[in-house]
């Protein structure tokens, strides 16, 4: 059995064409089913649904043989746990593309705050990534960990800035925030458990090759 870990939503949807290239069709729709283990048209391949940030954990500890995870999640976890032992990352799948950015209220002068060496309060789900980014710039920050709705933080006075993902910019615009700095291009990677790669080499190699052939331009 090959177990593939995916998160519901965009990663699941954008992985479907890659699975199709490998001749794999998922037999249930995660949007309508409450099941967490989904069968496919191939009796020896199944999909498990986990939180986006749990995909590397499942693959690293062998709960899944492989998975699809955003570079944002992989980078954050690598910083938090000093690398990602046991995880092989053979492919950039070029799906779920966005960027990691700093955003503030329109009336916050980010450039001046940085120039003056002020301490700024930054709210984010990506505390380790943000810590590294601001340390590299020599900017002093107080980090506030949030788990969602980051855009609210500058609007309520919780923080001066946020570090979050931006794609179309629509979410920032709807909340009257501006992107003041973009510092990391994000897409999703295929992650594979290294022990599984040895034990199930032929099947996993065939899957990796099929995925590689179907990566969008
Ligand atoms: N607006 C976006 N456009 C394109 N890709 C995105 C966007 N937002 C997030 N992503 C990418 O898709 C991945 C999954 O995002 P998704 O919104 O499905 O989960 P999440 O809500 O961030 O995760 P969790 O359930 O763990 O809170 C992210 O890790 C990121 O790599
Ligand atoms: O620039 P945009 O195209 O507006 O995309 C950016 C938004 O996308 C992500 O949220 P998502 O849609 O994944 O919501 P969720 O984290 O609540 O699932 C991210 O956290 C931003 O809020």
From TrEMBL:
Entry annotated with the keyword Amino-acid biosynthesis: yes
EC number: 2.4.2.17
Gene Ontology molecular function terms on file: ATP phosphoribosyltransferase activity
Keywords: Amino-acid biosynthesis, ATP-binding, Cytoplasm, Glycosyltransferase, Histidine biosynthesis, Nucleotide-binding, Transferase
Catalytic activity of the protein: 1-(5-phospho-beta-D-ribosyl)-ATP + diphosphate = 5-phospho-alpha-D-ribose 1-diphosphate + ATP
One of the Pfam families matching this protein, by short name: HisG
Domain ATP phosphoribosyltransferase catalytic: 51-211
Chief localisation class: cytoplasm
InterPro entries for this protein: ATP_PRibTrfase_cat, ATP_PRibTrfase_CS, ATP_PRibTrfase_HisG, ATP_PRibTrfase_HisG_short
Enzyme superclass (EC): transferase
Compartmental location: Cytoplasm
UniProt key word ATP-binding: yes
Pathway noted in the entry: Amino-acid biosynthesis; L-histidine biosynthesis; L-histidine from 5-phospho-alpha-D-ribose 1-diphosphate: step 1/9
Domain of life: Bacteria
Residue runs in coiled coils: none
NCBIfam families xrefs: hisG (TIGR00070)
Subunit note: Heteromultimer composed of HisG and HisZ subunits.
Role this protein plays: Catalyzes the condensation of ATP and 5-phosphoribose 1-diphosphate to form N'-(5'-phosphoribosyl)-ATP (PR-ATP). Has a crucial role in the pathway because the rate of histidine biosynthesis seems to be controlled primarily by regulation of HisG enzymatic activity.
HAMAP family assigned to the protein according to its UniProt record, in alphabetical order: HisG_Short
Family: Belongs to the ATP phosphoribosyltransferase family. Short subfamily.
Domain remark from Swiss-Prot or TrEMBL: Lacks the C-terminal regulatory region which is replaced by HisZ.
Name this protein carries in UniProt: ATP phosphoribosyltransferase
Species the sequence originates in: Roseateles paludis
